[in-house]
């Protein structure tokens, strides 16, 4: 029975053995084709099996298509099934030969056995050959009216397949109407479910072009229809229940009574053995009660137990998927889970990403009563074999400490970590102690005593080293040998590879100097000299800044470098609540499980594009990571080639508006495109910036436009385009689609441009922000950006204005191409008002 | 909506490919996937949803066989995962186990099953009882039948009646000469005992498994003596919700054969049946280890299959371990296994030995956790008790059987 073992191992279809065997098969099949001898079915079966096994392992057996079709005249259902499988696989590449199969498939569609009717219809509709759809309409029509539900189930899905092959054929044959009738009247719930599935897709696809389809789609969410489905929900298969629940999520009940009715009806679904049903129900509950705060909390309580059960009941894969959802809920409402913290204890043999989730949950649910136990548990993980987890658990202890429950006990634990003599434990603990001291300076005495005993030689990790140096600087008055440790660190300046550590060292030496000048003076001189000679821009700048500050006035310098500090009350959280909320909308979606934000459907080929349901695309802009050095140092070649430019055309530093400023301050040390750097650049730096923004590229042809572009609104407080990545690189969104146009400026506008800064100010009133500007009259150049309101769509505009001819050349780049034209209109109208208002 | 299902062998070979919609998914996705498996190791294999550059992938691994499904559209994650689990369950049921050879030998059956289980990427019939009627399993009985009757088809001649019946999990016209119904309580104990020997977490996850062979369409009711101890329950679709809600009675029409009727959790148990006391002391580069195992709480039933597993830290160079009872094995990856089986009457099993640490290390900083395994026949440790099992219409000959079993789940003792 088994397919020959050696063929299974054939690695590629091109292998000669594969080819000759296929030819062999071909001739054998040919011999059997016309034969009516007894036992012929058995030999056929063996041959078919071989063909399918070749197909399965990836050998191209499309060459035997004709023979397979010839052999397909048989009453043996397994032979038929194998033949259907084969035909379904190769019909697309052999559309001409596929025509040969139509005959026998159509005949089988009229077989008296409903199973054969169904199978034949399924194969016929899976051929996926556009030329053959005309042969599909008749059998589908018959199938939809078949008295056997199995055939109807297949036929309904067949209609959907037809729709994807040929929309017009499907619509012209009036199939949606037939499906709608079945949806409302069929006795078999699987037929109803399949109708629902098919109609959702079809009407979603049609809604953009047909008003009727839009209405039909809305009708699916009408009260009577939703109730019709809900009342029968227990009759549906578990998968169909998921489908129905997915639809109910979108339904908006009229009042709270309705909400309670639905929840009462669905409550037992939470006890279903299928996790997909449970999660779908939980999603319905969460969505229905979003506006009812009290009930929403009760919903959390209600769905908690079933989810916890699912975690312990399923296979590891299921458990992890459910755990990810629990994680989402815990992060959202930790207090609901405060008594269940033991569920989030890690087992040593769990994979580390599970442990990581659990650690985050443990951190979140800790409160006054559970802190002690949770911290005890976390401390056990610090001795874990899995080093990343050990680190995470120490960090978790620190986070709990910063939540200010029972700090006393935690500080003791942290200090114990410092004495564990393990590099990574010490490193993590040092970072935590630093954070802790920033929040609870009152603990400094205890901590400093322990920290003082740590030899700086044993601390190698930059973050930990920086933390240690920070403490040495901050508490140098309490640590007798602080100046000397700092001095020895300064002596090894060249061996310190991390700029972060060097920056901290500079500051720490400064602080120490203000507290203990005689002892530190030597170290300070050495540090400043080393800093000034440092090749790293930030270190150099900071050293220079300190140097000049000290030159200027030492008391002022102290006020700047070492002002009295207030304890930090809240640390900026790494994950903003906005992101958490957005992910929360995605409960029961894939993104929850792979733990990243929803990135929308993949880019499809034309064929699949129509399948996308409810697509909401995120920013498809390409993110280009440009090293800050490239940005700043990338210019010299061009400088030389162009020689000394006219100073007049130097680009002025960008006019940061408030939103830009706030971003800039947050990331200050790492943001290379800050004013001094930009200002210090020579004129031709425009080219570099030009290239980085992708604006120098030849403009693509103007895109075709949507029939009626919706009015475009811009986000007034648009966020900065430049974001500093953790590595100190700049991320720049480069849009590769652009739209170029020539406009004219009103004469008043041209006149107003004698002072170029008026234009950015004017456009800012229209929510268009200036990134950079430059040039000299009559040729001025501006770079603007704007962001669409409530969306992350971004527009970049390069605008060249010739004030003498009053002509403007604009190039617009947008990540959403369809909006370019709309934006262009908006920009024009904004520009035309310039100078008149 | 799933677009494609691949079944991969444990060496990454594509054994089977089932395209589900017109838009074909290229096999190269499997190559990408396998590269990730090789580069990221085991932890990658346990991730159930992966975002590849072109598709979202679902994967589950059973007996070394990877079931991989691809989609490009957002969909409920558990729909994909649960479905693959069903596929794996149904296949292992049909083929009586899962391995590379059995799938390759029976790929036609696998294709036939997938054809009925999913259409156009949406799960269709996953109920094993129904599938069995549509596609006969390739077992010996049906092979013999085909020899005797000369009918070599492995397919049912008629469509299963249940596709149209109101009890979709059960077929009509089932006839048995002897009617039997067996109810098993199977419990797993999850526990964590910390360094100080304190039981920090102890919970039981239990299942009620029913194996029924009864003529006709039987109406069963099952009740518990103490249903209130269950913290949370979930049911097979056959269980009616109302009787449970009002009287905590399970009322159902069972599928034919073995199935999981319900699952439950019991929280906050106070004690474990056995104790494990590890002691580890280290000094001057060597480490003494001593582990004692014994019965803490006599249930009156024999505890067997006791095992202890632990991973030695990487800083341990060599281990010399002996036990006064049972066999100790140290594997090359520093995993130790001590199989005790039953605890002898005369003495408490103990494991002792020395570990040699890496040069330069004085003391051990990382301590192993012990994974404990055991089985107890005849008792459900949660204390849950079945009260009675009734049939509305009792057939002439009926045999009812009850059993209970507790085994360890994630039972961890830290040192």
UniProtKB/TrEMBL annotation, chain A:
GO BP terms: intracellular protein transport; vesicle-mediated transport
Primary localization class, coarse: membrane
Domain of life (superkingdom): Eukaryota
Keywords: Membrane, Protein transport, Transport
SUPFAM superfamilies: ARM repeat
GO molecular function: clathrin binding
Domain Beta-adaptin appendage C-terminal subdomain: start-end pairs: 733-832
Positions of the UniProt region annotated as Disordered: 1-25
Subunit composition and interactions: Adaptor protein complexes are heterotetramers composed of two large adaptins (beta-type subunit and alpha-type or delta-type or epsilon-type or gamma-type subunit), a medium adaptin (mu-type subunit) and a small adaptin (sigma-type subunit).
The name this protein goes by in its record: Beta-adaptin-like protein
TrEMBL record, chain B:
GO biological process: intracellular protein transport; vesicle-mediated transport
Presence of the UniProt keyword Transport in the record: yes
PROSITE patterns recorded: CLAT_ADAPTOR_M_1 (PS00990), MHD (PS51072)
Species the sequence originates in: Salix udensis
Subcellular compartments: Endomembrane system
Protein name: MHD domain-containing protein
Every MHD domain range: 178-414
Keywords assigned: Membrane, Protein transport, Transport
A GO cellular-component term linked to this record: endomembrane system
Domain of life where this protein originates: Eukaryota
Pfam families: Adap_comp_sub (PF00928)
Entry similarity comment: Belongs to the adaptor complexes medium subunit family.
